[in-house]
Design brief:
This protein is mainly α. It has one domain: Growth Hormone, Chain: A. Helices cover 80% and strands 0% of the residues. It has 19 helices and no strands. Helix 2 crosses helix 3, helix 10 runs antiparallel to helix 11 and helix 12 packs antiparallel against helix 14. The longest helix has 32 residues. It is globular, with a radius of gyration of 21 Å. The C terminus is likely disordered.
């Protein structure tokens, strides 16, 4: 099939928007908690509301995709995000915020299901690996930029820099002491622009491959009888819980324990976490061609545990850098766990992928646990729960027995003439 560059560009932009809307919660956490006078448990309920949507919607979205098609699903997802962001921006109450986060999370879950098969078809199967890596780099870039945008808006609005027209507009739209709500005006604008763009783009017909189809009820029942399906589901659950557990709570930790300004230094730390995760992903691609994926997972997880420990127990400057550096070591975990999982079953890969994507709900549940433990003890103790999730990820490197291992290049093959 001929490559459709327009669709590829649209998908890459969609990856950017998904990341932009998803990975800002960590930067917002201190201000949201202060603005609504939240306990740590209630603060943990915010990422819960967002990521539980992935657990609820990942598999149903696959069925809807086969019925409605890519274009209609993408418009529906962005329409949901637009309405949710706009309603919260107009009525910035805590209960509205929770509902808004669930609705936006639902939209992002739908988009994740739609765009990967579409990228394969539009970009050409022979280019899919390259385009997937490019998409992840763009995803990472958006995660880096998003907290910077938040910091720019909040600091300028709070300082009353009204000589800037956009800041003047935002200042008039947000309540006093809730300058961070301006972020959701930006989200609403981005979502409506995406709808307009999608309406004018012609979509190719997508024939789902066997490993992209959601599968039948019988396939799910068969998979759930396989213990490795449950174990890898828990692996994704633990990974997303860890990733969000660090990115969501680090700014608040740095503010509470070391006095760093969450609107500047804290937001930068969150930004660097995602930036270093992107860089780590590039290195991981190279390492996975040289070393068995289980070994890569083992050593990157050990280094992630050391980084989190340094963040929690080190001094101010050590903590400020240790948390972002942990993002570098987390970078290989998701693709390695998914690939080990899919390579551990001989059939029903589409259904298994849906089960694994449901594990993204770990980003919801782990935050509630960290928040609850923090209210009973302290935020530092609450974040120590991450050692349990990281410990489980480390265990995968010991018990994983994939049917097919990742192909590696021997050094003597590289230097052959």
């Amino acid at each position: 099939m001929k490559r459709n560059i327009t669709i590829v560009i649209l998908i890459l932009i969609t990856f950017f928007v998904i990341s932009f809307l998803t990975n800002i919660l960590g930067a917002l956490n201190p201000n949201v908690s202060a603005g609504y006078h939240l306990t740590e448990t209630m603060a943990g309920f915010l990422p819960f509301a967002f990521f539980i949507a992935y657990g609820v919607m990942s598999i149903p979205s696959g069925f809807l995709l086969e019925k409605w098609g890519e274009k209609r699903m993408m418009i529906m997802a962005f329409a949901l995000a637009f309405v949710a962001a706009l309603i919260f921006a107009l009525f910035p109450k805590f209960n509205v915020f929770v509902i808004s986060l669930f609705a936006i999370g639902t939209g992002m879950a739908v988009l994740q299901v739609v765009i990967n098969p579409l990228l394969r078809v539009a970009g050409g199967e022979e280019h899919y690996a390259f385009n997937s890596v490019l998409a992840q780099l763009i995803f990472g870039a958006a995660s880096f930029i998003s907290p910077q945008m938040y910091s720019y808006l909040v600091t300028n609005i709070d300082q009353g820099n009204l000589e800037k027209p956009f800041i003047t507009l935002m200042s008039g739209l947000v309540p006093e002491n809730l300058s961070w709500v301006s972020v959701y005006w930006v989200f609403a604008l981005m979502s409506i622009l995406m709808i307009v763009v999608i309406l004018f783009v012609r979509f190719p017909k997508v024939e789902l491959q066997e490993d992209e189809k959601v599968g039948s009820k019988a396939s799910y029942l068969e998979l759930f009888k396989n213990k490795y399906v449950i174990l890898y589901f828990l692996g994704i659950f633990a990974y997303v819980g860890t990733e969000q557990g660090i990115s969501y709570w680090m700014s608040k930790f740095l503010s509470n324990y070391h006095g760093f300004d969450p609107d500047t230094t804290g937001a930068d730390a969150v930004s660097y976490f995602w930036g270093l995760m992107t860089i780590g992903g590039i290195l991981g691609l190279v390492l996975l061609k040289l070393v068995d994926s289980k070994q890569v997972l083992k050593w990157f997880t050990v280094l992630a545990i050391i980084s989190v420990a340094a963040g929690l127990f080190g001094g101010a400057e050590v903590s400020l850098w240790a948390f972002p550096v942990s993002g570098f070591f987390l970078s290989v975990m998701y693709p390695v766990i998914v690939s080990l999982g899919l390579n551990s079953v001989s059939k029903h890969h589409g259904s298994f992928a849906g089960i694994l994507m449901t594990g993204i709900a770990g980003g919801a549940v782990v935050q509630i646990l960290i928040g609850g433990i923090s209210d009973i003890t302290s935020l530092k103790t609450g974040m120590m729960f991450l050692f349990i999730t990281l410990g489980y990820i480390l265990s995968i490197s010991f018990w994983a027995k994939p049917i097919i291992s990742n192909k590696t290049i021997r050094l003597k093959e590289i230097f052959k003439s």
